[in-house]
Design a protein that fits this description.
The protein is mainly alpha-helical. The protein has 2 domains: 46 residues, no CATH class; 111 residues, Orthogonal Bundle (Arc Repressor Mutant, subunit A). It is built from 9 helices and 2 strands; from the N terminus they run H-E-E-H-H-H-H-H-H-H-H. Strands 1-2 form a two-stranded antiparallel sheet. Strand 1 and strand 2 form a beta hairpin. Helix 3 packs across helix 5 and helix 6 crosses helix 8.
């Protein structure tokens, strides 16, 4: 909505405004582009007009949407899915992504899958077997190994840390006197 408002203020007519993409009917002047960049910048957004940067952002969006916002991951290989979604050869996308981002698409996917696993562990609705299945890991051991490589912790240790940070409601306010020092501090 913010992007639409800024386009209207500049007198620009748009055909499409979606997450990460805008299609404008007319040619945009250098001054209008400058004003749009400034307006978006004030709102924490960025205008990307470099075609390679746009494609990198699209790759990131497809991965983020695939892992974080869909109920089920695609049944096909990630490479096929990304290639199909963006209508580009995967080798080209992969080389471009690695060159610009400094990591492979596969590494980027792994980091996102581990972040998603962390969310699911914190929600405490699924067990590790269910999480590994949901995120298309071949086994709990595979998930655990990647989780440890990325976070330095096992999933179960991560869960224990989360549990330790929280106190049951019934225990709040019932601190023993030993826990409070002479100055009234914990």
């Amino acid at each position: 909505m913010l992007v639409k408002e800024e386009l209207k203020k500049l007198g620009l007519h748009f055909i499409l405004v979606e997450l990460g993409e805008v299609e404008i009917m007319e040619d945009i002047s250098v001054e209008q582009e400058k004003q749009l960049k400034e307006a978006l910048s004030h709102s924490g957004l960025e205008l990307i007009d470099d075609k390679r940067a746009v494609l990198i952002e699209k790759i990131k969006m497809v991965i983020t949407e695939m892992i974080h916002y869909s109920d089920e991951l695609p049944k096909v290989n990630y490479s096929d899915y990304i290639s199909e979604k963006l209508n580009y050869d995967y080798t080209y996308l992969s080389n471009l992504f690695s060159e610009v981002r400094g990591i492979t698409i596969q590494q980027y996917i792994i980091v996102h899958k581990i972040e998603r696993a962390k969310e699911l562990i914190l929600y405490d609705e699924l067990n590790l077997t269910q999480i590994s299945y949901k995120l298309h890991y071949s086994s709990v051991a595979h998930l655990s190994n990647q989780f440890k490589k990325v976070t330095g912790l096992t999933p179960s240790h991560f869960k224990k840390l989360k549990d330790r940070r929280r106190s049951p409601i019934e225990e709040i306010g019932s601190l023993s006197q030993e826990a409070i020092d002479s100055n009234g501090r914990l």
